[in-house]
Design goal:
Blueprint: H1 3-50, H2 54-64, H3 74-83, H4 85-106, H5 110-122, H6 130-139, H7 142-162, H8 169-175, H9 188-208, H10 213-232, H11 241-255, H12 260-272, H13 274-278, H14 281-304, H15 307-316, H16 324-337, E1 350-356, E2 364-370, E3 375-383, E4 388-396, E5 409-413, E6 416-422, E7 428-436, E8 439-448, E9 450-454, E10 459-463, E11 473-479, E12 482-485, E13 491-492, E14 507-514, E15 522-529, E16 532-542, E17 552-568, E18 573-587
Parallel strand pairs: 13-14, 16-18
Antiparallel strand pairs: 1-2, 2-3, 3-4, 5-6, 6-7, 7-8, 9-10, 10-11, 11-12, 14-17, 15-16, 17-18
Amino acid sequence: MNKRNRYKRGKLVQGFILLLFAVILVVVVFKARHIIGKMGFVNDGIEHYKRQQWIEAEESLQRAKGYRWFHYKEEEATSTLTALSWITEYKDYIADLYGKVTESSEGKDLEAFEDYVSEYEVSGFLNLTDSQRQYLLEKYPIDQAIFTGWTHFKASIVNELENPMQGKYNWAKEKIFLVPAQYFSQDKESAILALFKKCDQELYDRYAVATGIQAFRDLIDKLSDIYVTNRAYDFETEWLTPQVKRFMYEALIQKSKEETKTFEQYISAYRSGVDRAYKDEAIEKIVEDFMVEKEKEIEKLLKAKEYDTLITLYKELKYFKDYTKEIEVAEKMQKYEHPEMLLQQPIEQYDFIQTGTNSFDVNQYLIAMNKNTNKLELILFIGEYQDYEVNTHEFNLNDLGITPDEVKQIDVGDYLVGLRVAGTNKAIRLPILRFTNNRLEYLTEFEGDQIELIDDLKHLKITNPSNEAIPYTYDYILGEEGYEKQDIAATPINLSDTNLANYEGKLVKFSCYVSEDSNDGIVNAYYYVGNTFYSDSMAYIYREDGVAINKGSYTVIGEIVSMEPFYNTDLQLEVLRPKIRVLEMQKE
């Protein structure tokens, strides 16, 4: 080995030795510090314990446990930590709870504050010795925080009770009971009762002066709250009850004299709230008296048949009594009195709305013409006044070739309806409908210069009817087959009578003989007996219809128009002969 290599090897050995020395030195220093540290924490912990500095002692001994490489007073340190176990258990808990109590108190969170106080009161902390509790309370004065909190919250609650209009009235009444008795200067229940009285009275005084139904309802709500809330805490409201009953009585007796709707609103509000708490027989008597007066009013309206007002009153009183059946009866009676209510369309659509009784075999009917549909509507009330059924019938006026605007008058008889319209050839046209087989049917019609109704439509007296050739006033009487023309009432005469002038202008009936044919309906007629006719007893007869008269014997009904002088060539003298307008002429 040369000298150079020996030198390098020596340097390596030297370096290793130095490194080893350094490592040993570090270990020695670390070990020394560990020993010194543990000894310090153990000694400090034991010393703090002796001075009853329990938190500091527990913290030092807990730190000493971290030095595991060195044992120093292990038994003494362990026994001391065991004695300090209560500190280990409660110091962090109390510190945290103290912070929460303080925070909830300062933050005005009563619910949270109450929860933390309740937790504190049931915790094992209170089972510690006096000196142990005192030691922790000096570090974390939670009792003081609780006292401060309750003092603060009580003041806040009392302020709400003393100023109930601030809006936390019910909340304050509930929460005041949470405040412990020691925070009241007198008996807790007496103090709370006094606060309740003051609060309730002020609320009542504030709301009782307001007017109007909404203010009345607000008062009801508040009084109900007072009653229900106080009863929940076994407090009666005897300090308010007399006032409330008196106030309610005076208010409701006044409203009972006003409109029904107004009284209903007030009595309903009363019954929905105060009635549960402050029910008063005197107020119920107001309602009874009110209904007695309303029943009298109902009787008057019934007698007067003022059904609109009556039905309105029934409906207004529905809160006090169920008038459903009475309303149904009144509405039925109203329609009987005002049958136009049953028309199928608005009343403006109708002409000739007519009502009547004792026709069509019913007590009441209505007939009208619907301008919109061009139909005649007939409404029949079948049955008694309050117990009837309604039947409606229609007839299409188009079937008669007329419209409602053309009708001038409607005549109604028993089972008959006549419609007066302008005639085609005469002044008046009278189509007649008959109610049969439970329907309106066309019966017949007449036209004339004048139509007179006798016995409703059963007997017609028609002047110059278009269905008769000879102008005259004829009588038509309704029979089973329809209208039948009646015989003309005339006085029987004899053309041989010498006093025929007494019958001038009157209807007469006589027998005569026509000796020759007449194509124009103007001819002489002679008195005859058997086959003999007498030229000295004659009449001048004529037919206005111009119908030819043939030779022969006749029975004639006519009107003596006048007595005319006539020279009788057979007798060679002038005589008077009657001029007779023939109405009827029947060959014998």
